[in-house]
Amino acid sequence: MNIALRFWSGYVRTTHRWPIIATIVPFIPVVAIWSIVANSGMFPRAFFPAPVDVMRSFISLTYKGILPDYLQDSLIRLLFGATIGVALGIPLGILIGSSRLAHRICWPVLLFFQAIGDIAWLPILLIWFGFGLTTMTFVIVYTVLFPIVLSTVLGVQSVHRDLARAAQSLGASPMRVLWEVTLPGALPNIITGLRNGLGYGWRALIAVEIIVGTSGIGFMMFDARRAGSTVEILLGMIVLGTLWYIVDAWILAPIERATGQRWGLVTS
Amino acid sequence: MKTLSLKNLRKTYFDPYAGSQVTAVHDVSLDVEQGEFVSVVGPSGCGKTTILNMIAGFIPYTGDEILIDGNLVKGPGPDRGVVFQSFALFPWKTVLENVGFGPKMRGVPKDERDRTAREYLALAGLSHAADRYPNELSGGMQQRVGVVRALANNPAVLLMDEPFASVDAQTRMTLQEELTRIWQERKPTVIFITHDVAEAVFLANRVVVLSKGRVLDQIKVDLPRPRVWDHLIEDETFKRLSAQVLQMVRAA
After folding, report:
1. What would the pLDDT profile of B15-71 be if each residue is shown by its tens digit?
2. Is-contact B98 B135, C-beta < 8 A?
């Protein structure tokens, strides 16, 4: 009992100093079970590879430069699409959130187009733009846009009316009210929207790469299917999960904490 | 010299559910001298907050005119500082930045507006809280910040809309005493909206009683200053004035 407690205390202190350990530890049993099943001979190795095989494939593909290249392609596409999505989404959200007229006009249209999922656009996009970057960018922008617009609208509407009034009666012009009150007030929601939007965008990108792609992680996985390489398919899946975890836990979540929770706008 | 002048101020709006015009404020006229402290008291729904919102420029008014130092009111402006019941402090700004917000909007350089803000924080006994965020303060402290934030901008009129309604009873008394002290030091022109009769009498030079959108009566309050609850609670004049106002409000 005493030893267990001491071990637990040591674990808590270690993970407090190096939070990454707390992230890795839960995966130890997952990888262990996977390894046991793969090595038990229940399935042929080519059909159900072991962690070691995937690791070997990771090293070899990284060494050949294929994986880094594909990863870079995917990330640049996501970043490019997401930047356009943010640049369109935040102003649109602020407009719809602050103007009742704009809300009445845009809201039904927005909900209609939100219902047409990103992938549902592909058939028409492929006819219009062909198999290329334009089609991919369109889908990502489309996917990222809606969560950001909807959260921005929510964020703008959640700013207490008295805050804008206070700023006005302290001499703030409409532009200053937007900059000093509306935007910071809506920021926690905007970041949540960004977090959701990037998550959806990342998934949509892989789907589009599978159909449209000539490179990228999605393409790598689909190409591996053609070659019957289960190892590379699994590797692609692991890369997707890991990468998203890093972006979300190390970049987006800390930003969310630094804003809303610090100001008491959202409770942690 | 008149700082604030309301001439036949009226507010009517269309009620889409009833399908008719509703009049919330009927031809209210009121003059406030520079350095006067005027309480406006009345039951809920008497139009007192509507009047304050019209003076602040938050909602459009009908009727003749609202003048501040002879200038016609056309929307919100820094000549009318507002203290809100909801405090309305900017949660993403420190206390110091909140108080320095008005000067910042006027383009005052950072050093200078920080100095002004610190001076006003000292006035409210809040120097120690300068670098904290509003959500780290108690309700009473937050509203002290709300008051000095409005004062630091040197408005011609300070408009206070039930500012102490959402703090506990003990804190409210302390805040009322502090407000009378600050008023004596700085002599700002104040319009103070409240439904609390004792509060109205305690603070003001003049109490305006409002009912159903009309001015029912105005009562001068000549109690000596500084005003402290320990003394006034037993004071005959205070009791008589409070009773007089209370009867009017209840009959209204």
Report:
1. 888 888 888 888 889 999 999 999 999 888 888 899 999 999 999 988 888 999 888
2. no
The residue of A158, A161, A169 whose CB has the most chain B CBs within 10 angstroms, and thus the best one to mutate to test that interface, is A169
Q: Which two tokens stand for residue A16?
A: 């407090």
Per residue in A106-132, pLDDT tens?
Answer: 889 888 888 887 778 888 988 998 888
* Chain B residue with the nearest C-alpha to that of A184: B92
- Alpha-carbon distance B117 to B97, whole Å? 8
Please name the member of A160, A173, A259 whose beta carbon is closest to the beta carbon of B86: A160
- In Å, how far from its chain's centre is CA B116? 22
User: Which domains are seen in chain A, by residue range?
Assistant: 54-263 (1.10.3720.10)
Residue A244, H or E segment: helix A230-246
CA A261 to chain centre: 21
Inter-chain CB proximity A169 and B91 less than 8 Å? no
A257: distance to nearest CA of chain B, Å?
13
Q: What contacts B161, CB < 8 A, 6 or more positions away?
A: B49, B52, B82, B83, B84, B85, B193
Query: Residue ranges of the domains in chain B?
Result: 2-79+157-251, 88-154
Best residue of A158, A161, A170 to probe chain B, by most B CBs closer than 10 Å: A170
Query: Which residue of A165, A171, A259 is in closest CB contact with B58?
Result: A165
- In the β-sheet with B2-15, what is the strand arrangement from edge to edge? B20-33, B2-15, B62-68, B71-72
Query: Using CB atoms, which residue from A166, A169, A184 is nearest to B77?
Result: A169
Nearest CA in chain B to A175: B105
Adjacent-strand bridge partners of B12: B23
Phi, psi at residue A28, to the nearest 5°?
-60, -50
| Topology annotation, domain B2-79+157-251 | Rossmann fold (3.40.50)
User: What mean pLDDT is reported for chain B?
Assistant: 91
pLDDT number for residue B104: 95
Task: Give the integer Cα–Cα distance in Å for A52 and A64.
Answer: 18
pLDDT of residue A80: 92
